[in-house]
Amino acid sequence: MPTIGVLAIQGDFIEHREMLGAVGAESREVRLPEQLEGLDGLIIPGGESTTIVQLIDIFGMREPLKQCVSNGMAVWGTCAGMIVVARRLLDRRPQPLGLMDIEVSRNAFGRQVDSFETSLEVNGIDGPPVHAVFIRAPVVTKAGEAVRILAEVDGGMPVAVREGKLLATSFHPELTNDTRMHRMFASISSC
Ligand code: GLN
């Protein structure tokens, strides 16, 4: 089983660690660059992307994180995490890390309906649809050729994407009892 770090500077990292435990993966909280060492994968959780990016920069994590990805570490960004890993944002802030070839729009579902739950067919997840929780969620507005769209809502808004060992979801699997997405990431991390 892989060792997976959870960026634990802000957001719902505890819930991710519980899910990783449930699928039998080793997990570790990551706050400093040296804690990235030896990880097979890293989850960047939901929270507030401006705060997460600010703290990544304050703790000197930006370059080491990019380096680990070049060396083959898997990364999964959920919600704010999707914003953090993007190449480009339609918003002025924050300055994303540019790990995945995706353009992302923050708070894409507008104010009135900015939080909702729905059933989603996710490519690569067998069995019943995934119960997806969206909280002031982003959406992928453009994806490079190497990016596979795994799930969409409202006929054409990508909310789950994969590019090699990089995964991003607009929703929060860690807030449900369904461990299948974490199992999928564990398997991506160990290959
Ligand atoms: N709206 C938040 C942001 O832009 C993300 C919300 C979330 O992670 N649930 O950072």
Order of helices and strands, N to C?
EHEEHHEHEEEEEEEEH
Rounded mean pLDDT score: 96
Strand order of the largest sheet: 2-1-3-4-12-11-10
Helicity, in percent?
A: 10-25%
Oligomer: single chain
> What is the number of beta strands?
12
Secondary structure layout plus pairing:
Blueprint: E1 3-7, H1 13-22, E2 26-30, E3 41-44, H2 49-58, H3 62-70, E4 74-78, H4 80-85, E5 88-89, E6 102-105, E7 115-120, E8 130-135, E9 139-143, E10 148-153, E11 157-163, E12 166-169, H5 180-190
Parallel strand pairs: 1-2, 1-3, 3-4, 4-12, 5-6
Antiparallel strand pairs: 6-9, 7-8, 10-11, 11-12
The structure holds glutamine.
Can you walk me through this structure?
This protein is of the alpha/beta class and 191 residues long. The chain contains five helices and twelve strands. The strands form three sheets. A seven-stranded mixed β-sheet has the order 2-1-3-4-12-11-10. The chain has a three-stranded mixed β-sheet with strand order 5-6-9. Strands 7-8 form a two-stranded antiparallel sheet. Helix 1 links the parallel strand 1 (3-7) and strand 2. It is globular and about 40 Å long. The N and C termini lie close together (10 Å). Bound molecules: glutamine. Glutamine binds next to helix 4. Glutamine (GLN) binds next to helix 4.
